[in-house]
Amino acid sequence: MKTSDKIDRIMYNFGNIHPTLFVERMNAMQFPFDYPVREMTYKEVNDRNLRLYAFEPDTDTANRPVILFFQGGSFQPNPKFSPAQFQHQARYFASIGIVSICVDYRTGRDAGFTPLQAIMDVKSAVRWVRQHAEELGADPDKVAVCGASAGGYISVSSIMFGHLNDELDDDSVNAVPDRLIIFAAGMDGVDIMSRRYPELLPIAKEISPIHHVQSSLPQTLWMCGTGDDLYEQNRGFVKEMQEAGNPITFKTYDGMEHGFFNYGWHNNTYFHATNQEIESFLRPWIDHPH
């Protein structure tokens, strides 16, 4: 059976095992944002509106850079994080002139969820932003994606696995971001699927970045604490990807655990430190908006 056939079969089976009522409840879900945001629907799936929550700079200018945030923890049946995980980072980057967007994508909360859907949602969000850059006051060629943990896996996978696309997407629109930012993310798809989605084991290697080292990523900033359980895996993967020609800067934080960068952790020391790393990484875009 071809890979595409196996994927179609798995997604079809998952998409029909939960009652419609659950999806309706999802439509009504409100995420806990502490600040005003501009809400935009970038995709509709089974009557579920997937939304972008935008923090916009005060300056009313065109051709501003964009950053899209994809939260972590999304593969769990009841994720503790929501798109609001990165709201404080988004608010900060909007204050320095970047259109900053927290992305609602399909997660373990959704009926029949698999990571394949989330990978496709990353691509759909990037394409939507490029297609609507003018109304966002954004530069379609300055789109950054930032993902943490599971959000990092789907961000990297969206770039590396070109065959995974939503059938309703316009695949003539480039879904690869111009810059990539990752906070400690599992790159072993076989490990992820064996623990969370054993139904996907037949195709796990085919959606496993660590099994497909190649030159494919844009300029990338990768941050990881040395106390993170994923540190050795991330260090090894980044080294192999660098050797394959990928322009990755690997920044480590001594002793820091998974999620160390989150707002409210460690008296916000690393929240501010990682914001500064990202700002420096994107500074050429900020200083030269056109």
3D structure, described in words:
With 290 residues, this protein is of the alpha/beta class. It has nine helices and eight strands. The protein has helices spanning 3-14, 20-27, 87-95, 115-131, 133-136, 150-160, 189-196, 231-243, 269-287, and strands at residues 38-45, 48-55, 64-70, 99-103, 138-148, 179-183, 219-225, 248-253. The chain has an eight-stranded mixed sheet with strand order 1-2-4-3-5-6-7-8, sandwiched between helices. Helix 4 packs across helix 6. The longest helix has 19 residues, at 269-287. The model is unreliable at 1-28 (pLDDT under 50).
* Termini Cα gap: 48 Å
Shape: globular
β-sheet strand percentage:
15-25%
| Radius of gyration from the alpha-carbon trace, in angstroms | 18 Å
The major β-sheet equals: 8 strands, mixed
Instruction: Give the averaged pLDDT, no decimals.
Output: 90
What's the total number of strands? Answer: 8
SSE sequence, one letter per element:
HHEEEHEHHEHEHEHEH
> What's the arrangement of strands in the largest beta sheet?
1-2-4-3-5-6-7-8
Percent helix: 25-40%
Structural class by SSE content:
alpha/beta
Note the total helix count. 9
Low-confidence stretches: 1-28
